[in-house]
Structure formats: structure tokens, C-alpha cells
Design a protein that fits this description.
Blueprint lengths: L2 E3 L4 H7 L9 E2 L5 H10 L5 H17 L13 H10 E2 L4 E7 L5 E7 L8 E10 L2 E5 L3 E2 L17 E2 L2 H14 L23 E4 L9 H11 L12 E5 L3 H11 L2 E5 L5 H7 L8 H9 L10 E7 L7 H10 L5 E7 L13 H13 L30 H12 L6
Parallel strand pairs: 2-3, 7-10, 10-11, 11-12, 12-13, 13-14
Antiparallel strand pairs: 1-4, 4-5, 5-6, 6-7, 8-9
The structure holds S-adenosyl-L-homocysteine and iron/sulfur cluster.
Length: 411
Amino acid sequence: MTLSLNLADTAARNALRSPAPALGRASLIGLTRAEVAEALVAAGIVPERQAKMRAQQLWHWLYVRGVSDFAHMFNISKELRGQLAEHFDIARPEIVEEQISTDGTRKWLFRFPPRGAGRPVEIETVYIPEAGRGTLCISSQVGCTLTCSFCHTGTQKLVRNLTAEEILLQLMTARDRLGDFPDRDTPDGAIVPAEGRKISNIVMMGMGEPLYNFEAVKKALLIASDGDGLSLSKRRITLSTSGVVPEIYRTGEEIGVMLAISLHATNDDLRDMLVPINKKYPLKELIAACRAYPGLSNAKRITFEYVMLKDVNDSLADARELVKLLKGIPAKINLIPFNPWPGNNYQCSDWETIEKFSDYINSAGYASPIRTPRGRDILAACGQLKSESERMKKTDRLALEAMMIAGHGEA
Ligand code: SAH
Ligand code: SF4
């Protein structure tokens, strides 16, 4: 059974609603410390000599304590709290829907207020609990400019890039909902160590291509990994890209998180069809960028994602080519059973074929886990995310259920 709180349920909606986002006030979330200090001085509410100290104080409240209302910042004077609230916004997005799968996976539909003259946008974020860890799958764009032929997000045009604030707010709001921030009112502001947290890892694998929104993603991930704030180790942050080669080099130099590559094919002809950005950055260039990724070792490997498509890329000859292609790169190969969606032309490989493929790669010395599809009953699996503006029609949903029952795409 799926637990779903949705728009029709006004009481549930109000219960989830954060303080109303204030239109027109600048957000302090997603700014660097120096930018927070500058903003305080520019607003004329903090003298220059105090700015650095105040920025640090706010940083702690925002990112260690997870406060979303200036009124809770009790070591700041009432007068300054009032001025901060007049000028700045630190509210969470509206939670339009929260669904909990039978396997514990949660999916949220968040609504962010308009930026400038634009409209509000809605995006999906997914939490996947596993033994010993919990992973949050974060979106970087509303829709995607790319059109990978097996991906549902790829059928939705890009609405816009998310800001650094919106990327971070997915993590912060999910931590609120999971009780993953320390109690706001503990005077010592106890820090929850990363190992004790429900969200121990984040992956940029939601909607969108993170490297086509490089600056915002970089800013958000540097804040998420800041040791005096949200404090997630860069080893526990993975950025997945379809292969935007110049920005892979920049990711290594400027962000330093773990890298995942959506490979899916071992030759240019097939990859041009499955992942069309390959026409711009063919395999040779992509693999060269991977080889050059800083700090690679057996302990720090690149993950290659490979979606298993029946009779398309799942033969043993493909497995052989894959091993050849990746030779010498410290790599893990993540086999993803294809997740179906209405209107697609693919089927998931048979389980036996996936296992044979995995065994071949494994015997060549690579870890080759098969990704267990999670949260399928709430359409939270890889490549199934889409925003409210393009939610599934009931007829599509029924068609999908029929497909699952018939066994297509079932792993
Ligand atoms: N845009 C980025 C990150 C988001 S997609 C990227 O392409 O890497 C996260 C992963 O899910 C990617 O490897 C993507 O190729 C894969 N994926 C997309 N649609 C899928 C589907 N229907 N079934 C299984 N995996 C899918
Ligand atoms: Fe965009 Fe990634 Fe989907 Fe390709 S797989 S369309 S890059 S979200």
C-alpha cells in the first residue's frame, strides 16, 4: 500500500506547509559566508565590523540547527531578528505531496515560489533508506534539455535551472521531514554526526543534467559539504552526468565530489541514439575526461551507470566491450534495470541476462551491483521523475500498472 498525502487533502497539506515563502525578500540560503556578510551590510542592519561574526552565527542556525524561522535564533537580539525577517527569507518550499512506498522510499513534490517574473516550479526529490545508510536523490533542473531516449524526464522540456538555494532546500526540507536536524531548542545545538543521520549520502540523480547548471550545483554542493554546516563528506556526494565533458574536468577541479557517468553504451553509434549528448562529446573524449578525474584510486572510483535494455545493449559482447572501454579506470559498474514509463519503446532485459552480464564484468575485476529498483509503486525509480506540470494522466498510470503486471521491466 502506498501512503500518499496529496493536494486534495487540505488538512494534510496545511500540516506539511512551512512558513509561507516571502515574495520579494532575498534568500540567505545558498549564499557563501562572504555573500551572507555582504548582504547583511548592504541591508544596513549589521555594521561592517560585525558582519563576519553574524554571518557565521547565521550559518550555524541555518545549516547545523536547520532553523527555518529567524524567531528561533535565540542568541540573536529580538531587534535584529525582526530586521532579518524584514529583509530576508529562509523559508522552506511548500510540500505539495509526500508519498511513502511499501519499501520505505519517500518521494516529495516540492513547490518553489516564482523567481522574478516566472511561475512557481515543482520538482521531485526521493529518499531511499538502506541498511546502514540513507540516500537522498536531488534534482538540479525542472525538466532537462537533453533527450535520452529511455528517460522520462527527457520527454519534459527544460522549464528552468534550479538555484543553489532550491538545490539545498531539497536536502534541508527532507532532513526536516525525517527528523534529521537536532532539536531546535537544545541550547547547546548538538550536532548530529553524519553517521547517525538518516540522510548519510546525496546523489545528484534526480531531474535534470547537473552539469548544465554548473554554477548553482557547485555552490550548493560546496555548502552541503562545508564542515561547519551540513557537513556531508564529499565521499558521500555523487554527481551523475550524461557526459558534459568540459564540466567533468571542472567538477574534479572545483567541486571534488564522487562522479557517476551515465554510460549505457560502449560504441558511439548506439550511444548517439540512447544518450544524444554523445554526438557532441563522443566516447573517446568522455573516457579521457574520466581517466583524468583527480584522486582516482581503488577507494575512490568512478561509477558507470548502465541501463539494461532488452536486445539493445545487454549482450555478452556488450559486456566484453564495456570491460575493454574502461580498462585502467578505477570503476564500479552500476547495472540499472530499465524502469518503464508509458509511451517508451524499450523493455527491461530479462533477469537472467542481467545476471550473466553482471557476472562477466565481475569476473573481469569490477564491482557490478545490480541496482534494486526502489519506490516503483510511487514512481520514484530512476528516470521516472517528472514534475507536477506534467504529471501522469490517470490513463497513463493505468497503462504503466498493466505493463508492470505483465512483467515488462520487472527485475
Ligand atoms: N541527468 C543525469 C542525472 C539524472 S538521471 C544523468 O543522466 O546522469 C539518473 C540515472 O538514471 C542516469 O544514469 C539515467 O541514465 C538513468 N535513467 C534514466 N531513465 C531511466 C529509466 N527509465 N530506467 C532506468 N534508469 C534510467
Ligand atoms: Fe536528462 Fe539525465 Fe534523463 Fe538524459 S538521463 S534526459 S541527461 S535527466
